[in-house]
Amino acid sequence: MKQETEVSRRSFLASAVAVTAAATAAQGQDYGPRAAPRRYPDPDIVVLDKRFEKYKIGNAAIERLGTGYRWAEGPAWNAQGQYLLWSDIPNNRQMRWLNENGHISEFRKPSHYSNGNTFDHEGRQISFEHLGPSVARYEHNGKRTVLASKFNGKRLNAPNDGAVHPDGGIWFTDPGYGALVEYEGHKAPLEIEEAVYRIDPKTGKLDKLIGRNEMFKPNGLCFSPDWKKVYIADTGASHYPEAPKNIMVYDVLDDGKKVGKGKQFTSMEMDFNGKKVAGFADGIRADTDGNIWVGSGWVGDGYDGVQIFAPDGTRIGLIKLPEICANICFGGPKRNRLFMAASQSLYAVYVEAIGAGVT
């Protein structure tokens, strides 16, 4: 894997502050209940490449649906119930937003400090939990079933994000963030390397697909619309200075059971106010045209939010938010509404793109 030179974490944060001060974007926007209406078209939905023009709706604005969370992650859309759920990790709970009236309430507490969430092809909720640590499934009767908690006799680090393949296999990442601090789970030494795994739907066997020889801290994960590729964000630079800030792509082989050799899909480096900066890609989702929508941040205004990449890896659009965006998903009755779990708040915007996969 190609390595890039990184400044120290301290100097990186200092440079991020400088970039933030110089940038102009969403930070000054008022999203409160008494805020003035946004003028169309929303200036914080930015077309960088003409390929993104067809996805931007001229009379649709970014909306903040709720706020007051500590670190929002893992939005997942339930089509049958017409609701969105997501994790508020430090508060050890999951929240729910109802499509019918916008009501938000606590959905599940405790949540085992769940991070990512998704639904399988039978409509059952799958949660990737820091506390346990484990991957768990909620049955239709409400029972919680632990699907994975150990690999080769050693406990998992802290499952983070994942997706369900049409064959029923559950793919998930285990970068270990929930084991690094008490704030998001239970602090403990990592017993195994950071990796990507697959749970076999028939046997329950856990197979390692990608290890530290290929990625440092695999994080967000999604499949291409045709299920032939899997995209995985690497946030290893948060702890390993030599790690690249990028998104990798792998061919899905053997009917969804293995991966081929990976390559870089895109770098998170961006020309920003006359200098090159690189933040982190976190949660990622694909639309039906094969574009990859990326929750991103840790740079500042004008970078933080959602970045959209064409199938060839070119950055074609930005959705600028006043907070770091962790995870995203498509939802709504037409799956054309992008929900964004961003630090302390939940945002949404209608786009002319349709989400691929289950959620």
Through-space gap between termini: 30 Å
pLDDT averaged residue by residue: 92
SSE string: HEEEEEEEEEEEEEEEEEEEEEEEEEEEE
The figure for the number of domains is 1
The dominant shape is globular
Q: If you consult CATH, what is the topology? A: Neuraminidase
CATH homologous superfamily grouping? TolB, C-terminal domain
For the CA atoms, what is the radius of gyration? 19 Å
Q: Characterize the biggest β-sheet.
A: 6 strands, antiparallel
**Architecture, according to CATH?**
6 Propeller
Fraction of residues in helices? under 10%
Q: What structural category characterises the helix and strand content?
A: mainly beta
Low-confidence stretches: 1-25
In DSSP terms (H or I, runs of 4 or more residues), the helix count works out at: 1
Protein described:
There is one protein chain. With 359 residues, this protein is mostly beta strands. The protein has one domain (9-350): TolB, C-terminal domain (Neuraminidase, 6 Propeller). It has one helix and 28 strands. It has a six-stranded antiparallel sheet with strand order 5-4-3-2-28-27, with no helix packed on it. It has a five-stranded antiparallel sheet with strand order 1-26-25-24-23, with no helix packed on it. Strands 16, 17, 18, 19 and 20 form a five-stranded antiparallel sheet that branches. The two termini are 30 Å apart.
